[in-house]
Design a protein that fits this description.
With about 150 residues, the chain is α/β, with parallel strands linked by helices. The protein has one domain: Glutaredoxin (3-Layer(aba) Sandwich), CATH 3.40.30. About 50% of the residues lie in helices and about 25% in strands. It is built from 7 helices and 6 strands. A 6-stranded mixed sheet has the order 1-2-4-3-5-6, sandwiched between helices. α3 packs across α5 and α4 runs parallel beside α6. It is globular, with a radius of gyration of 17 Å. The chain starts with a helix and ends with a helix.
């Protein structure tokens, strides 16, 4: 039993390392006593740095325009985790930009405040339309608005 658990842990760590190298985040949750893995695209540092000459507002606007579902988030935020979990549960593929992992995260968050009037995270966009934060996203899912936007 211990050997099997050790092998499972090593396999998981290998998957996690590979996913990190491919700029993919893994979200794990339990569903009916099974471990479910959701994949999420993440904006990699190199991809973000390729836009180095642009203003934070231009960078954010470009990411919003280039991604069907764009989530500006922080890794330690429980509301961000809840919103990303809800999107993943629906099977929605999204790109996440983790503001706390990037050197210009504070500037991007300030630009998002200017763009949307929203200071908090998560800050979620679907097809360029600002959805809002966690509560607004959950309400949009519950009402079917988010699903309609994705069609």
């Amino acid at each position: 039993m211990e050997k099997k658990r050790s092998l499972m842990l090593h396999s998981f760590l290998l998957i996690l390392i590979c996913a990190t190298m491919m700029s993919i985040a893994l979200t794990l949750r339990r569903s009916n006593n099974k471990l479910v893995v959701h994949t999420v695209n993440r904006v990699s540092s190199s991809r973000w740095m390729s836009m180095a000459g642009e203003s934070p507002k231009d960078k954010a606007t470009k990411q919003i325009a280039d991604n069907k579902v764009m989530v500006f988030s922080k890794t330690y935020c429980p509301y961000c985790a809840k919103a990303k979990e809800a999107l993943s549960t629906l099977g929605v593929k999204f790109t996440a930009y983790e503001l706390d992992e990037q050197s210009d995260g504070a500037a991007i968050q300030a630009a998002l405040l200017e763009i949307t009037g929203q200071r908090t995270v998560p800050n979620i966009f679907v097809k360029g339309q600002h959805i809002g934060g966690c509560d607004n996203t959950l309400a949009a899912i519950e009402s079917g608005k988010l699903q309609a936007l994705l069609k």
